[in-house]
Design a protein that fits this description.
Elements lengths: L23 H9 L2 H5 L2 E4 L6 H9 L3 E5 L7 E4 L9 H4 L2 H7 L1 E2 L9 E4 L3 E2 L5 E2 L5 H11 L8 E5 L20 E3 L4 E3 L16 H6 L1 H13 L2
Helix pairs in contact: 1-3
């Protein structure tokens, strides 16, 4: 539908990724209207193209941005606008710029106020569909495992209006969103419980090897256990 209505943006093809869309900047501005965003000091954001306006806006607003690296292969990066030249904030909000101006961060040292996620589709009850690899859910599980987020941490997605559908199937390990922000409206979903830990039994050793952040969390978690 995004392609048919002429609202899909680069990068293409949009299949197999979080699709970029016309109006992503307006959706970011609507996110700015949320009191939870205005009060937030630390914004966690996915690295996908449609959320680049959110990352730029948050840095311009003086907020610290924590960004997941693609496929979590290099963990999380922290972007502190106090450490970035003002003229480079826009570039720092890109993936390449984040690797240049950001620095790796230990998830145990992070406290997230708002988590922004990308979506392929989302329903008004807060159920969300991503690319299908589970990275966004795993990010929240990692943050929850280390105490960086709680059940009260606001999870927001910015999408095109066409991406809001009647129903999205979900399972227990899927993270529901609290707020859906489009270029034209803000939808607050009913409060739902979020996963509170990493489901290690669902992860292969290959996945742990490919995402060293998982290995680090597992090792530190074991060291901190009584």
């Amino acid at each position: 539908m995004l392609e048919e209505r002429g609202v899909a943006r680069f990068p293409r093809p949009i299949r197999g990724r979080i699709p970029n869309f016309e109006g992503a900047e307006r959706a970011a501005e609507n996110l700015r209207s949320l009191p939870e965003y205005r009060e937030a000091r630390v914004i966690f954001c996915n690295p996908d193209s449609p959320q680049a306006p959110v990352r730029r806006m948050a840095l311009a607003d003086g907020k610290v941005v924590v960004m997941a690296t693609p496929r979590l292969r290099r963990g999380f990066l922290v972007l502190d606008p106090r450490e970035i030249p003002p003229s480079e904030l826009r570039r720092a909000a890109t993936i390449r710029g984040a690797f240049r101006y950001g620095r790796p961060v230990d998830p145990w040292s992070v406290s997230v106020d708002v988590k922004v996620v990308g979506s392929v589709a989302v329903s008004p009850d807060g159920s969300r569909l991503g690319k299908g690899h589970g990275y966004s859910d795993l990010e929240f599980a990692i943050l929850s495992e280390v105490g960086a987020v709680t059940q009260d941490t606001l999870v927001v997605t910015t999408v095109h209006d066409l991406q809001v559908v009647d129903r999205v199937p979900s399972s227990d390990h899927d993270v529901p969103v609290d707020v859906i922000v489009t270029p034209t409206r803000v939808i607050r979903a009913p409060k739902r419980e979020k996963p509170s830990r990493i489901e290690w039994e669902l992860l292969s050793e290959g996945a742990v090897r490919e995402m060293p952040i998982l290995r680090d969390v597992r090792e530190k978690r074991g060291a901190r256990s009584p």
